[in-house]
Amino acid sequence: MAKQNKKIEILIDESLCKGCDICIELCKESVFIKSDKINTLGYYIPIPVNILNCTGCIICELICPEMAVVLKKIETEN
Fold it and tell me: 24 pLDDT exceeds 90?
């Protein structure tokens, strides 16, 4: 039987993000940094740069006041 691994994909809806940085500050695994990219609302958005550190705890998704962060867990076979 093949080993099951979980792959995490983090999606940031740039049209919703208001650059509050809560996801950056509350992520214990330091997955996000603030980018130098400005969205259409004029805010600097977070970007997931250390995605391999992500444990899939979904705190970032739960605490985002604008619901701009979505985690997708994908089962993969190795």
Answer: yes
